[in-house]
Automatic annotation (TrEMBL), chains A, B, C, D, E, F:
Superkingdom of the organism of origin: Bacteria
One GO MF term attached to the UniProt entry: catalytic activity, acting on a protein
Record InterPro entries: aa-tRNA-synth_II/BPL/LPL, DUF366
Name the record gives this protein: DUF366 domain-containing protein
Pfam family, one: DUF366
Length: 185, 185, 185, 185, 185, 185
């Protein structure tokens, strides 16, 4: 599994959550996580979370750090578990940078009632995919949020790279952990 | 998914990592997590982690809080991801009780260089299983450890119940998260 | 697994066989079976059974009791087996109401040469789905049919609820039956 | 999928529920169902249903018609669904012979409170397996039972062959039904 | 698994790589391989191999022998392994006709630097599919190629039938090989 | 996927076909292929191929080149397809060394009626495994055989390494080929 940091700004509108996005745009073949920064605005017809659609939730942030993950497996429940682990990982990397005030609730990260993240996992015809966006700033968001800036993270992409690196390492270590045990009765 | 708290002491010697252990002993049918407390001593021939066997590691602790999880799925990699999430969950529940000094490294929890946990995931003929043990005391362990007592956790089983509860809730929420999205291209 | 009885008439034209139909329309998250009543008219371009398309079969009934089932699994053969069991269940619930003249042939129910049912199972991008329609009346159908009215079923939706209930109970009991056995050699 | 009728008496003691039993003993390679007749006595240590073990149930019948089914798949839930369909099939074949008094409850068949069948499904290291036994006589059984003889079935093995034939045909038709549909949205 | 030889010319433009193509056009239900002959011209928007799209490769041949294979399984890696075996099989059938100069490199066949084949494997919503095209003539191809004619194969469809036959036989023998072994420790 | 060449002689008696054999003995974690040389004598009770057991075949060779492959997947049919591809690969590597007289028939390699190979694929509790042995000499074998020496292969382990290398490369390229295609309709 490899990661790529896109340094140019890239706005997320939902169309990036598409199979082979990272391969087509950044040349990474195989399992991947790509990191980029830009606004987040997903219209109703691009939303994949029907819960949001039914609640008429509106996803918007002026400036977010985005992660798009692709695993070439077709078990969506497994990918949702990976997504939860990614959220735990983001929290843990933040802790490594001194931010110890976050709480994870499912696939969301909060500081008190302020939401740091949006996230979704779904299937494409050939893979499963995760999007996670972390607010950089908390300005003008439709609900109370906190941003990485508020948490003291200055170099946002460098932080993103640390997350991507740790996620890749963990995916690899999970694979090997699966290969070192005998069965039991 | 259901949990069970066994209040009587029960020593772990590896033979508890066996399919249907919780059903046979505590009557819980289906996916389960059982929590109990007792010593941990696993002899070489009961070890399922070949890495430990090759390293001639010796698993011993006088007093541990044990979790045994059973999922009726045969994808061990998926179970290893669940195991990592369980470890992240234990750390998060500790944070909720004010313990903010732990770090997760794969399936291990540490305070500095002191290890809090042992853990393994494997397959049985009909399910996949996780064992996780957390030191209660750090006395007489073969490597530097930290125990729940050192972290200020007095009611060890109550803490275990909080973990079990949160794990069950998350397994259920993962299942539902898998059922609310449309596919993407 | 939950069921929902839609009491308002709803005509089936094939577009209801769509992932998350029940969640979007009736708010049921997770595995579900929804029951409703209305006409059935599926045009060639909405048909999912290529056998019917090739045979230029035309699916039409003035008044049917419809079941739409969604399982969040991607093994279509497994869903076809579930579909056969659903048809057997419908027959068994009818027997419980005194109707002992039906025969099941694959995913069809007959009284002599008269067909009671249409049914299909297929995959969506995120789930697998079953549609089953039972004629309420046998008037104006393109082939010889029998309807629930002919069989003496007066309260059609109440009958549908009995089927849905039993199907949900059986799905749950199947899940538990999978979790109570040791493996063999 | 093929079937075999063993005409010589063969007593069932649980050891027949073993991978490749039919291949080793009757030369049928691949998915199979074998039919034979003999007593049924399964000791506690041969039982695979832990529910029976916990309840200290004791499986005994002087004379049973036995079916052993092997599918080379590792999804036990799928095999349990097949098992339920096998039980529905047995009931349907009996109906074809004029016996219209049976009820199916999960994997059991009853005439009123009298049990006709025992059945279990489990995994072997290379396949999944079903055993089903139908009482021929109801003499000396530990619980109230009914036997095929009581139901007027004289040629027990011929009846077994009809079941086996229909089960094989349905497995094949299920396979083809999975291969004739387009996906939906 | 069955095969079909279409004797009428049929040009391949990518739209044939579609689920149930063989069932809809030639009536073969279930796993299948169809063989036909015609030109090959796949425009960018019909290409399924993103590597070709990114490299702006252009697939063209005046006259090819085409194979379209459909397996009703959703594990694309498995289908890619089948595809490699199909390419090895084509090479082996050619050897049986005296052509001993080919080399297989992944899913490509070469004589020296001259390419005999194009091939791709992908998923449809209900199955997995393979296309393989073998140049009949090497005239006017965009890269150096070799054609079956250059290799001395005169009756191209008869050769195609030999491949199809051997592929079907091997798929069947693979299925049975899976059903004749006991597990190991 | 990694390979290991064991240069010390090691006789194969069937007990090497065991999960984690390569990890335990040679330290390779994860998917692996190990190559060694030694006699081959598998007694009836160690045989995993029931076909051989039923035929009372006796596997014996004084001197063989052995390959043991382990994939951490539980789909035995998939592993059998891999095994066939391994056999095709061995033949192709031999062709690269000028040996153009072999024929593959399923999982066997022949020169005329003389058998070069034995091979089997099966499941362990945590993985799937392949053994393949190639006769080095054809002396004293119970059936007509040919050995690598007869084919002019002098450095047997170097040949084995070439096979292992190519197999590892192909497994990796198969994985990537699965990750570069869009789905079709």
């Amino acid at each position: 599994m490899n990661y790529f940091i896109e340094h140019k700004p890239l706005n997320y509108d939902g169309s990036q959550l598409q199979s082979l996005f990272t391969y087509k745009n950044f040349g990474l073949k195989g399992e991947s996580i790509v990191v980029f920064r830009g606004s987040c605005r997903v219209e109703q017809n691009e939303m994949v979370d029907l819960e949001d659609v039914l609640a008429k939730d509106w996803i918007y942030s002026e400036d977010m750090l985005h992660f798009i993950v692709e695993h070439f497996e077709m078990d969506l429940e497994k990918t949702v578990i990976r997504q939860r682990l990614l959220m735990a990982t983001i929290k843990e990397v933040l802790e490594g940078q001194g931010v110890k005030t976050l709480m994870r609730s499912g696939d969301d990260l909060y500081e008190d009632k302020n939401k740091l993240s949006v996230s979704i996992a779904t299937l494409s015809p050939v893979s499963s995919m995760i999007h996670c966006g972390l607010n950089v700033s908390n300005a003008n968001t439709p609900i109370p949020t906190v941003g990485l800036k508020n948490l003291g993270i200055e170099d946002v992409l460098a932080f993103g790279e640390r997350v991507a690196q740790r996620y890749c390492t963990e995916v690899q270590s999970i694979r090997l952990a699966r290969c070192k045990v005998r069965g039991v009765c």
